[in-house]
Structures are given as structure tokens and as C-alpha cells.
Design brief:
15% strand, 400 residues, 9 strands, elongated, nine-stranded antiparallel β-sheet, 58% helix, alpha+beta, 2 domains
């Protein structure tokens, strides 16, 4: 790597770091407010919010990295053009392809990192985020009930009460929902009292007059009235353990997805596993295409074409992101083959980027986008000039 290549990379690091920081901060702050509301409503400690935010960083980093990398290259090339440094490099015999090479090298390195990010960091952090959220929601159950707050007491029991005394144990207008084996059972009672068992480790919910509505095994609705009773054998004050990792294909690593795809009995449908696997590959391999898009648009910024270039780039990045998401959805539902559905947006994005890059090789600062914008501006300007130059015709009889 020569002196110019090292110089270009030194210029790239400050805007890349700044762009990543700004985008990550904006994304995290938006989720942070919702997490505070969720934890505060459940009465959990605020420390859970910090843990959940830390586990969200790999996910948001995957969203921010392509946009920040493109923006940093665009800003560096535009700055070189404004300071005439780009013209000096081209006059010294450097070609546009040679100047793009260090950005492509860095893009390949970032692509390898993205493979690790999407394939291993994100699945683990996604599971840990859900695990921390589960603990935060269940830590609010401390064997006491708050008024008009749903408390998860474990084993499928959720209860709430309209009125609770100061101890949190004597309830009025109790509502209980129990879900076991996909069958819902709803219990209501005028009064309730949480009483400890003999050993003091568990609780019993003693109910007054109430009603139970549930679905029987034959599909009939049972409506049972009772004068008094217990809602359950007992309630535990200890949070039950969270489920094992792998319930969703998004929690599986690259290696686990590959093994599951080729297993005799896949844990999830093959289309869902393959859609997730190829979607991660497309997002990782799209980074080397960004310098081919950012460099010609950045060179055109010197000639007053910055705004159209930014708009076109944003539209193309959004097309790639949402196109891959749509392809994954079509593949997971089985409506379309996996490889064409997921890889078509990548191929189209790559073809457009290469077309723009090749269009700027012979005429630096010019590309198909700038030529199209210039043609539209000339057309509008010509219409405006023709209207101004059109002579005013005098009305008949004027001056008579």
C-alpha cells in the first residue's frame, strides 16, 4: 500500500467513526425510551435496561455499518474534490480504479467482520437480549400484586387485581389467566388472599366467590361458579429458568444454520433456515459494492450534483435492505425459491453500482446519474427561457 492509499484511509477513519457513533446513538436512544417504559411498568431494576441495550448493539451495528461506510467514503471523495486534491492525483497518473482500491480493501475486511457479526455475534446477543427481558419482566413478581398491573407468577399464570392493600397480599376483583397446553382458562373472583405455605417457600391464592371459564377437551366451553377455593396448588416466588437458545432460526449461528439445513429432521422448516442463512450472506457480501457506488457519486459532488447523488444512494441502500427482507419473507413462506428471492436484490444493486462506477471511469466527475440530472435541468431551463423570450401580443383595438 502506497503513500496515497494510506492517506486516503487516514481520511476515512474520522468520518467512519463519527457516522457509526451517530447512527448507533440514534437507534439505541429510540429503543432506550421503550425499554425504560417496559421495565418501569413491571417494577424491575433499571440495571436490566443497560444489559438489554448492550445486547442490542450488535443488531444496530449491522444496520449502521453499511450506511456509515458509504457516507464516510462519499464525504472523503467529496472533500478531495473540493480541495482539488483528486484532480492532482488524477493528473499524477493515478486512475479512479487505483484510488478506489484502498476502500475496496477495507470493504473486504469489513465484509469478513460482518460475516462474524451476522453469523455469530447477533444470534448470541439476540438470545441474551430476550433472556434479560424475560428476567426483567419476571423479576417484578415478588409475591406481591400491584393494582392494575399484570404479574406473571410462573407456569402460565398471569394475575391482576383492581384493588390491593398495603401488603400486596389481599386482593379485590381478581382476574387470573392460565394457559396450559394451548388451552386458556380465565378465573375471576371478588376477593383473593395470598397466604404462605407451611414451609414459607411458596404461596397459595385463596379466592372468595368467583367464576371459571375454560374450554374442555371436546371443545365445549365450561362455565363454573364457586363459593370459595384456591386458584392453584401454589405459586413460586422464584423466577423459572428461561428457555434454551435455538427456539428461532435467528438465534442460530452460521454453523448451526448449516447443520440444521442439512439435518434429516430440521428443527424449523427448511425454507426459514435457508432464507435466514442466505440473507446474512447477502448483507455481509454487499459491503464491497459500496465503494463502487460512493466513489463516483462523491466525485460528482464537486460539480454541484451532491443532492441528487445522495438521494439516489439512499434509495439504492433502502432498496437493498428492504429487498433482502422481502426476499427472506417470500423464501420463508415457500412462495419463491430461496436463492432467487434473496440474491436478486444483491445482483441488481451490484449491477447498478458497477454501471455507475464504469460510467465515471472515462470522465471523472460524470456518471449516468449526473448526466440524467443535467438533462432534466437543461430541459426545464429551456422551457423557462422559451417562456420568457415569447413576445407579448397586443390585444386587438389597443390604443384606438
Amino acid at each position: 500500500m502506497g503513500r496515497i492509499e494510506r492517506y486516503l484511509l487516514r481520511l476515512l477513519w474520522p468520518p467512519l467513526t463519527l457516522s457509526l457513533g451517530v447512527v448507533l446513538l440514534a437507534l439505541v436512544l429510540e429503543r432506550l425510551l421503550r425499554l425504560f417504559d417496559l421495565v418501569a411498568a413491571g417494577g424491575s431494576a433499571l440495571g436490566y435496561v443497560l444489559l438489554m441495550v448492550l445486547n442490542l448493539v450488535p443488531y444496530y451495528l449491522g444496520l449502521a455499518l453499511p450506511a456509515a461506510f458509504f457516507a464516510s467514503i462519499f464525504m472523503v471523495v467529496a472533500r478531495l474534490g473540493e480541495d482539488n486534491e483528486l484532480d492532482a492525483m488524477l493528473a499524477a497518473g493515478r486512475s479512479i480504479a487505483e484510488l478506489t482500491r484502498p476502500f475496496l480493501l477495507l470493504a473486504v475486511i469489513l465484509s469478513v467482520f460482518a460475516l462474524y457479526l451476522f453469523g455469530y455475534l447477533q444470534p448470541g446477543s439476540r438470545y441474551r437480549y430476550r433472556e434479560v427481558m424475560y428476567e426483567a419482566l419476571h423479576s417484578g413478581w415478588n409475591a406481591r400484586v400491584q393494582e392494575n398491573v399484570f404479574a406473571d407468577a410462573g407456569r402460565g399464570f398471569v394475575l391482576t387485581s383492581d384493588k390491593v392493600d398495603g401488603t400486596g397480599r389481599i386482593l379485590t376483583n381478581v382476574f387470573i389467566r392460565r394457559k396450559v397446553d394451548d388451552i386458556d382458562e380465565v378465573t375471576t373472583s371478588d376477593t383473593g388472599h395470598l397466604v404462605p405455605t407451611a414451609d414459607g417457600t411458596r404461596l397459595l391464592l385463596r379466592l372468595g366467590a368467583g367464576r371459571i371459564v375454560r374450554e374442555s377437551d371436546d371443545g365445549q366451553i365450561e362455565d363454573i361458579h364457586f363459593a370459595s377455593g384456591y386458584a392453584n396448588d401454589d405459586f413460586s416466588t422464584v423466577t423459572p429458568p428461561f428457555r434454551a437458545r435455538g427456539d428461532s432460526e435467528r438465534e442460530l449461528t452460521f454453523a448451526e444454520l448449516w447443520q440444521a439445513m442439512h439435518a434429516v429432521a430440521p428443527p424449523q422448516p427448511y425454507s426459514e433456515l435457508a432464507g435466514e442463512f442466505h440473507g446474512r450472506l447477502v448483507r455481509s457480501l454487499s459491503l464491497p459494492l459500496l465503494p463502487l457506488l460512493a466513489f463516483p457519486l462523491g466525485m460528482a459532488a464537486k460539480r454541484g450534483r451532491r443532492a441528487p447523488g445522495v438521494v439516489i444512494a439512499c434509495l439504492m441502500l433502502l432498496f437493498l435492505h428492504h429487498g433482502v427482507q422481502l426476499g427472506e419473507s417470500l423464501a420463508e413462506t415457500g412462495r419463491f425459491p430461496v436463492i432467487p428471492a434473496v440474491w436478486s436484490p444483491f445482483v441488481l444493486f451490484g449491477a447498478l453500482s458497477l454501471w455507475l462506477f464504469r460510467g465515471s471511469l472515462n470522465s471523472p466527475g460524470e456518471n449516468p446519474v449526473t448526466r440524467a440530472v443535467a438533462a432534466v435541468e437543461n430541459l426545464i431551463g429551456g422551457i423557462h427561457l422559451r417562456r420568457k423570450s415569447k413576445p407579448d401580443t397586443a390585444s386587438p383595438g389597443a390604443g384606438s
